[in-house]
Amino acid sequence: MAALRARFGGEATVNDFLAAYKRYAQFEGRSDRKEFWYFVLFYVIVSAILSVIDSMLFGHTTTVTDSGFSMTSNFTPLSGIFGLASLIPGIAVSVRRLHDINKSGWFYLFWFIPLIGWIFLLIWYCKKGDPVANTHGEPPVGSQLPA
């Protein structure tokens, strides 16, 4: 566990998870892997929790189909509000992440190409950012080359 902390710069703080929300609609600049993946982790965890709360508060309907049971939720206001509130920060941090590997933010539109586009984006999101300045600005603090 200590090796993981040393590798990723110590323990995560609340600021690490909320960094993308603090730069809500900033599409310029760069975001390192840490900022991007902490945003994704935070989004998935909060979405899962809100889905459970929505289910408990507002119920769900269960229908029987030919292939078995199918659960569909009719009313999910908490998940919906969180999803809408996270839409712009999610796009912005994704664009900044692409900038970190010196790609245009327009490559984010690959999201609309099923499977192939998603694979390209996943590979790029996992790629280490440029440690020096590129056309999109200076590298994030955690990605800079040591002086």
What distinguishing features does this structure have?
7% strand, mainly alpha, two-stranded antiparallel ribbon
Distance between the termini: 28 Å
Give a quick account of the main beta sheet: strands, pairing sense, barrel closure.
2 strands, antiparallel
> Total helix count?
5
Q: Looking at the structure, what is the overall shape?
A: globular
**What structural category do the secondary elements indicate?**
mainly alpha
Q: Which consecutive residue ranges, at least 5 long each, have pLDDT under 50?
A: none
Helical amount among residues, as a percent range? 40-55%
User: Would you tell me the overall average pLDDT?
Assistant: 85
Order of helices and strands: HHHEEHH
Work out the number of β strands: 2
**Strand-residue fraction?**
5-15%
User: Gyration radius, to the nearest Å?
Assistant: 18 Å
Protein described:
The protein has five helices and two strands, in the order αααββαα. It has 147 residues and is mainly α. Strands 1-2 form a two-stranded antiparallel ribbon. The longest helix is centred in the first third of the chain and has 26 residues, at 33-58.
Layout of strands and helices, then pairs:
Layout lengths: L1 H6 L6 H9 L10 H26 L2 E5 L2 E5 L4 H24 L15 H11 L21
Antiparallel strand pairs: 1-2
Helix pairs in contact: 2-3, 3-4
In summary, what is this structure?
By secondary structure, the protein is mainly alpha-helical. It is 52% helix and 7% strand.
